[in-house]
Specification:
Blueprint lengths: L13 H5 L17 E10 L8 H8 L3 E6 L6 E5 L6 H9 L4 E12 L1 E5 L25 H6 L4 E11 L37 E3 L18 H11 L13 E8 L6 E2 H16 L4 E6 L1 E3 L4 H12 L3 E5 L27 E7 L18 E4 L3 E5 L3 E7 H18 L5 H10 L2 E2 L11 E2 L2 H5 L2
Helix pairs in contact: 5-8, 6-7, 8-9
This protein binds calcium ion (4 copies).
The site of one calcium ion (CA) has 6 residues, from loops.
Protein name: Subtilase family protein
Keywords: Hydrolase, Protease, Serine protease, Signal
InterPro entries: Fervidolysin-like_N_prodom, Peptidase_S8/S53_dom, Peptidase_S8/S53_dom_sf, Peptidase_S8_His-AS, Peptidase_S8_Ser-AS, Peptidase_S8_subtilisin-like, Peptidase_S8_subtilisin-rel, PfSUB1-like_cat_dom
Length: 449
């Protein structure tokens, strides 16, 4: 995407004050560095402006051009490209003060929540899938293997949105578990009528095209998205690893490129999955192993649209910021996991010996549950496997459990699924008092809730 080279690191200080939003969710109180795209501002219009053409709207707002990001909320959310010389800070302040604008905010940049990668480390261990009575056993794993033993292995009628980098959908351990069944590949037609042509495996919002796997000779691109996908749904009884679900359907809402992703593109990805659900696909959750930016009313609004559509938003609690030591999200919000939407499940990471991973954020009020996040083996591009650490890796264990539950309980509501996951958490000393449940994921115990 051409914006990529425009991405710069800009520290938000004065901007936080200017960013006065209409939400009752607290803004970040700290002077954390938040990145945003220079020359762009997200503007939520009032309904009085809805009838204008985009050209007229740009003139009205005094900006170079506007693009509609979301239109489903009564009045459009637009991405305004500023005229040269116009700063994001001044545009947020002046646009936000207009009577015909609900709010204006920076177009924040997000990064995935993995702390490190070790592509040469493949030890064959999948402790995150084990439980106390499985073979092999690890009491701190997700206990997915016990669910499989009871006959729950997921279903091809359950769909999960992967909002991340892209996915190597033809990886031997993922092929068949990734795809939009109502779209025909490469025929130049929008077969399912969702507004996206040939979105067979999803859509690349970072580059606005239908190639969600851009690995090829471009290095590690799409490794993170492929890794979280394998934890949710790598295939069984063939090669490599296995996911929490042996059967599931994953679809890519790619918005992270080499330099991260933006609020505008994350919002487009969220609305894309709502659109697919409205077209009849049983989208039960999105996996969100990423974070950054500062408070975004526009992103919070989009998550709420997902909530209304009955889609859970499973989110990484974050990896401690620049020093890599876990932070308290109650004191220092990590977005998007800290938003107050009721469909969010915020996930901390634990190690194979039950400790909180040193990098994992926590929060008695803002982080719901722990799951395996250290030394997690999964799929990566070029048909390979690698071990990663991060709340990014803990999150798909929970998303996988959500999909497993949905397969076993057709028709369960998002609230019912969330309650089953959280109420079955196993009390865990390292998470006690610093997470909502004080416990870790048990994908098998959740099934009987
Ligand atoms: Ca389509
Ligand atoms: Ca097509
Ligand atoms: Ca692409
Ligand atoms: Ca496999």
């Amino acid at each position: 995407m051409k914006n990529a080279r425009l991405f710069g690191l800009i520290t938000l200080t004065a901007l936080l004050a200017a960013c006065g939003s209409t939400s009752n969710t607290p803004s970040a109180p700290s002077a954390q560095a938040a990145e945003f795209v220079p020359g762009e501002v997200l503007v939520q219009l009032d309904s009085s402006l809805r009838a204008q053409s985009l050209t007229a709207l740009a003139a009205t707002l005094g900006v170079q051009s506007v693009e509609v990001v979301a239109a489903s909320d009564g009045a459009p959310l637009v991405l305004a490209k500023l005229s040269s010389g116009q700063s994001v800070e001044s545009a947020v302040a002046s646009l936000g003060a207009r009577g015909d604008v609900r709010y204006a905010e920076p177009n924040f940049i997000y990064h995935h929540d993995a702390t490190s990668t070790d592509p040469y480390f493949t030890n064959g261990s999948l402790w995150g899938m084990y439980g106390p009575s499985t073979t092999p056993a690890n009491q701190f794993g997700s206990n997915a293997a016990a669910a499989w033993a009871s006959g729950s292995v997921g279903s091809s009628t359950v769909y999960v949105g992967i909002i991340d980098e892209g996915i190597q959908y033809n990886h031997p351990d993922l092929a068949g578990n990734v795809g939009n069944p109502n779209e025909i590949e490469a025929n130049g037609k929008d077969d399912d009528g969702n507004g996206f042509v040939d979105d067979k495996y999803g859509w690349d919002f970072a580059n606005n095209d239908n190639t969600v796997y851009d690995g090829g000779n471009r290095g590690s691109l799409d490794a993170h998205g492929t890794h979280v996908s394998g934890t949710i749904g790598a295939r069984s009884n063939n090669v490599g690893v296995v996911g929490v679900n042996h059967n599931v359907r994953l679809i890519s809402g790619k918005f992270l490129g080499r330099n991260g992703g933006t609020s505008a593109n994350a919002i487009k990805a969220l609305d894309y999955f709502i659109g697919l659900k409205n077209k009849g696909l049983n989208i039960v959750a999105t996996n969100n192993s990423w974070g950054g930016g500062s408070f975004s009313q526009a992103l919070r609004d989009a998550i709420e649209r997902s909530n209304t559509a009955g889609i859970l938003f499973v989110a990484a609690a974050g990896n401690g910021g620049s020093d890599g030591v876990g932070d308290n999200n109650d004191a220092t919000p990590h977005y998007p996991s800290t938003y107050d939407n009721s469909n969010i499940i915020a996930v901390a990471a634990i190690t194979s010996s039950g400790g909180r991973s040193s990098f994992s954020n926590y929060g008695a009020k803002t982080v719901d549950i722990g799951a395996p996040g250290s030394g997690i083996n999964s799929t990566v591009p070029y048909d390979k496997y690698a071990s990663y650490n991060g709340t990014s890796m803990a999150t798909p264990h929970v998303t996988g459990a959500v999909a497993l539950y949905a397969a076993a309980h057709p028709g369960a509501s998002a609230a019912q699924i969330k309650n089953a996951i959280l109420s079955s958490a196993v009390p865990t000393p390292s998470l006690s008092g610093i997470t909502v449940t004080g416990g870790r994921l048990d994908a098998f115990a959740a099934l009987s809730k």
